[in-house]
Amino acid sequence: MEVRFSAFGEWYEIESVWEGNFLERTERGAFAKTIAENRDNIKVLFNHGFDPQIGSKVLGKIESLDEEKDSPVGGVTLFDTSYNRD
Question: What is the CA radius of gyration of the chain?
Fold first, then answer.
């Protein structure tokens, strides 16, 4: 599975239970340090782990994770689980 998130330079709305609703924009380089220093601790979750069925179950193993020109992009091998098949 290819995962693209937080498109660079574009405003998008965040609806947070804790922080309320607000607009956010990220710029290229915003994820570089985290990817370099904590890649092995990053988890791929559906809906930030708040899905009522899946919860915080990890979807798969990150095979690649980099910043490209337009957004961060990751390659994820999905685990063979019932929640991924569903």
Answer: 14
pLDDT in tens, 4-39: 999 999 999 999 888 999 999 999 999 999 999 999
Does residue 84 come out as left (phi exceeding 0), alpha (psi in the -120 to 50 range) or beta? Answer: alpha
d(CA 36, CA 32): 6
3-state secondary structure of 48: helix
78 pLDDT above the threshold of 90: yes
Residue 71: burial class (beta carbons within 10 Å; 0-12, 13-18, 19+): middle
Number of Cβ within 10 Å of residue 74's Cβ equals 19
